[in-house]
Amino acid sequence: MVGLKIAAVAALSSAVLAAPQGTTYSPGDWKSKIKNVVVLVEENRSFDTFAGGLSYNPAIDGLLHHNYCNSMNASDPAQMDDVCAGPRANDVAPDDPNHSISGVNMQIFSTYHPDEMQVDEFHEAENMHPRAEAINYYTPDQVRVFNTMAENFVLFDRWFASVPGPTNPNRAYITSGTSHGHGQNDNAFNVYGLSQKSIFQQLSENNITWMNYQNSTTGPGLGFNPDAAFYSWTATSGANATNIAPLDQFYADAKAGTLPQFTYINPECCSYQSFHPPSPITLG
C-alpha cells in the first residue's frame, strides 16, 4: 500500500454550495456549515498513476507536462531503451509488485537494506511490459468520479507514504498518526492489538458521532479488518458493536440523511473494489 489514495468529501449546506463567488467566510462560519465528513481510503496507487493524467487544471503536478522516462537498466542506461510514462494504464493492473518494506527497498535501492541513495526503480521487473505499466497513468475518462471530485472540490498533488510498505501500518498512520512500530500486516491488526489513541477514540471523547462502514470482511476477498478494529479501545469501549457497520448501511444512512458527523469507509480488499490489483479501476 505504498501509494494510498484518500478521498475526503465535506457535505456542506446548500447555503454554502450556493454562495456567490467572492463570498468570504471566517473559520467559524465554515465550521458551523460542515454537516458530514466522509473519508474513503483506497489502495496501492501513486498520485502519478491515478491522477497524473488529470487535465482540468494545468497547474496539477502530474505527468501531462513532463516527459517522464526511466532506463530499462538503471546500472547501464545506455544498454537498453527507455521506458516512458503514457496514458496507457490498464483498468486491471497486470501485476502486483511486492510492496512489503523489503520489496520496496529492493525496487528503489536494489538492496533489501539500503545504506545509500542508489535508485533502481525497475530492478524486480522481468520484461518491458510490467516496467512500462508501473509508470503509466489513467486518463480522466478512466477515473471519471475521481476527476469530478477533484475538479469540484480540492486535489492535493503531493502524496507520501508514512511506511514504504504494506496496507495496515499505513492505515494506522492515517487513523492514529503512528503504526506503533508495526511494519507488516501482522496479527495485531486482527485482534484489536494496537494500544495507541486513534481518531475514533478522540471523536468519541469529544462527543462527535462517527461510524466505520466496511466492506473489507464481507466481500469476496474477505480481506483486512476495518481500521477501527485495529485498536484495543474500540473493543474495550464497546464501539466495535455500535460503530462498525457493513457498507450497505452507509448507502442506507446516506439516502436517509442520517450519516454521522464523521464517516470512515473501508472498501473490500483486494479483488474488486479497493483499487488494489486485481481490482478494476472502473469499479473502485
Order of helices and strands: EHHEHEEHHHHHEHHEHE
Radius of gyration, Cα only, in angstroms?
Answer: 20 Å
Tally of separate domains = 2
Number of helices: 11
| Outline type | globular
* Contiguous uncertain segments of 5+ residues: 7-20, 119-127
The fraction of residues in strands falls at: 5-15%
Strand order of the largest sheet: 1-2-7-5-6
| Classification by helices and strands | alpha/beta
Main sheet characteristics: 5 strands, mixed
Number of β-strand runs: 7
Protein name: Non-specific phospholipase C6
GO molecular function, one term: phosphoric ester hydrolase activity
Keywords: Hydrolase, Signal
InterPro entries: Alkaline_phosphatase_core_sf, Phosphoesterase
What can you see in these coordinates?
The protein is an alpha/beta fold and 284 residues long. It has 2 domains: 5-46 and 159-283, no CATH class; 47-140, no CATH class. Helix content is 27%, strand content 13%. It is built from 11 helices and 7 strands. It has helices at 14-17, 27-33, 47-51, 101-109, 128-135, 144-152, 167-176, 199-205, 232-236, 239-242, 247-256, and strands at 5-12, 34-42, 69-71, 82-84, 210-214, 244-246, 262-266. The chain has a 5-stranded mixed beta sheet with strand order 1-2-7-5-6. It is globular, with a radius of gyration of 20 Å. InterPro entries: Alkaline_phosphatase_core_sf (IPR017850), Phosphoesterase (IPR007312). One of its GO terms (molecular function) is phosphoric ester hydrolase activity. Residues 1-18 form the signal peptide. It comes from Lachnellula suecica. Pfam families: Phosphoesterase.
